[in-house]
Specification:
The complex is a heterodimer of chains A (141) and B (306). Chain A has 141 residues and is mostly beta strands. Helices cover 10% and strands 36% of the residues of chain A. Chain B folds into two domains: 7-128 and 289-300, 3-Layer(aba) Sandwich (Rossmann fold), CATH 3.40.50.1370; 131-285, Rossmann fold.
């Protein structure tokens, strides 16, 4: 399958197979009017199968959101059709307005204007807790 | 400018300093009688709490300061829909320090992020209540002489009891502490506290359902209330409720040097006959709470006392 190479933009690689649409939506890519290719179930030596998203535009891509989604993802930055950097994701220390706190006793449940902020409290087990009430983030996305 | 939202924001050095100031206040009350003259404490209590609010107010008056505030949400702008952030910004124009109780978890943190004056968390739902832990620590220090080297039993509702969770977290930073967790299976200490605090800090602990079996080992017994609504069925509640009521008979095997603590309010989990026992320290805890709040107000207002 041939997908045109991109001039200026990003290749989000090593997305777990079947998860690209979730990430697409999380990054708000549906709002862009540039060319975007979503490749599902591409063969991968390391992962068996993987998804890839190619974005042909130099957008302000949130690495924080991608790292939070899956720290195994790599982001390749393309400028003038050349690969200029390959970034391996890390779990971000804090994520803002990516997930909502589900604790009905949390102040965010009644004060709508507050940002929903989760901080990483256990890197090994990928545990995030609400900044305000310390509730563990259960459903990840 | 510092606030206090969670007890773990204070280092052990700072805890020890607060305890030292509180003990100096107890020894030399006259020295502190005017040190907050001209300063105002705002007590913003969005839910009723007689003891904590009066403790804060008494603390500020004994430092020579003044107090303003409200004691229920209905008498504040919250009833009109004002946000915690706006309330904090507004009160910052009137007072020098805030003590806030709120039914929603995290509300005092939101206040501290928006206020230009220090905020003390006076209890946010079932989440944190750091000044109760300060009261507990001063009580242990005064009754035992040290915050290290003893066996402490926590009895009753260890699942929902925020005072138990905070005290365990604070004590985990001191040495040679052995923890005995006494509760019905339904109200056991949550796994994350067991793993993240006790196991992570290599604190020796045992879990049991029987208070009598561990009574002779305890240096401190921290009682909490077992509430009917925490049980899944009435039969379990009836079966277990009396196991966690402290009576003179159950104390027969206890050490003469035992210290009995309770965050109060008590319903029936400590028999009133024990109140006159010299080992009962729960009303001293109340008094110690006021002294620790005085020490905390001085620290956060950065008042130097010579």
């Amino acid at each position: 399958m041939k997908v045109d190479s991109i001039k200026n933009g990003f290749v989000i690689d090593h997305i777990p197979a079947g998860k690209s649409m979730e990430l697409y939506s999380l990054l708000g890519l549906e709002e862009l009017d540039c060319q975007i290719a979503i490749i599902k179930n591409a063969p991968s030596r390391l992962m068996g199968k993987k998804d890839i998203i190619k974005i042909d535009a130099d957008i302000d891509l949130s690495l924080e959101v991608i790292g939070f989604f899956d720290s195994g993802i790599t982001v390749n930055t393309i400028k003038n059709e050349e690969l200029v950097s390959k970034t391996h994701m890390e779990l971000p220390l804090k994520v803002e307005n990516v997930c909502k706190c589900k604790n009905p006793r949390c102040i965010t449940s009644t004060e709508q204007e507050l940002s929903h902020i989760f901080r990483l409290t256990d890197r090994e087990n990928k545990v995030y807790r609400c900044l305000y009430c310390d509730s563990k983030l259960k459903s990840f996305i | 400018m510092r606030s206090l939202i969670d007890i773990l924001e204070l280092t052990t050095k700072e805890l020890d300093e607060l305890i030292a100031v509180a003990e100096d206040i107890i020894a030399n009350p006259a020295k502190y009688a005017e040190v907050c003259k001209g300063k105002k404490l705002a007590t913003l209590f969005f839910e009723p709490s007689t003891r904590t609010r009066l403790s804060f107010e008494a603390a500020m008056y004994e430092l020579g300061g003044n107090v303003l505030g409200f004691s229920e949400a209905n008498s504040s702008s919250a009833a009109k829909g004002e946000s915690v952030a706006d309330t904090a910004k507004t009160i910052s124009c009137y007072a020098d320090i805030i003590a806030m109780r709120h039914p929603k978890e995290g509300a005092p943190l939101v206040a501290s992020m928006n206020a230009s004056i220090p905020v003390i968390n006076a209890g946010d739902g079932g989440h944190n209540h750091p000044t109760q832990t300060l009261a507990d620590l001063l009580t242990i220090k005064r009754e035992k002489g040290s915050l290290s080297g003893y066996t402490i039993g926590f009895c009753g509702d260890l699942k929902f009891g925020r005072t138990v969770h905070s005290l365990i977290a604070a004590l985990s930073r001191y040495e040679n502490i052995k923890v005995v967790l006494i509760s019905p299976d339904e109200l056991k200490l949550p796994d994350y506290i067991r793993k993240d605090i006790l196991e992570k800090n290599n604190i020796e602990f045992i879990q049991t359902e029987s208070l009598e079996s561990v009574m002779p080992e305890l240096d401190i017994l921290y009682m909490t209330r077992v509430q009917r609504e925490r049980f899944f069925n009435e039969a379990d509640y009836i079966r277990l409720k009396d196991s966690y009521i402290l009576t003179p008979k159950k104390l027969e095997t206890a050490k003469g040097s035992l210290t009995i603590m309770h965050p109060l309010p008590r319903v029936n989990e400590i028999s009133v006959a024990i109140d006159s026992d010299p080992r009962a320290a729960y009303f001293k805890q109340v008094l110690n709470g006021k002294y620790m709040r005085m020490a905390l107000i001085l620290k956060l207002l950065e008042v130097e006392v010579k």
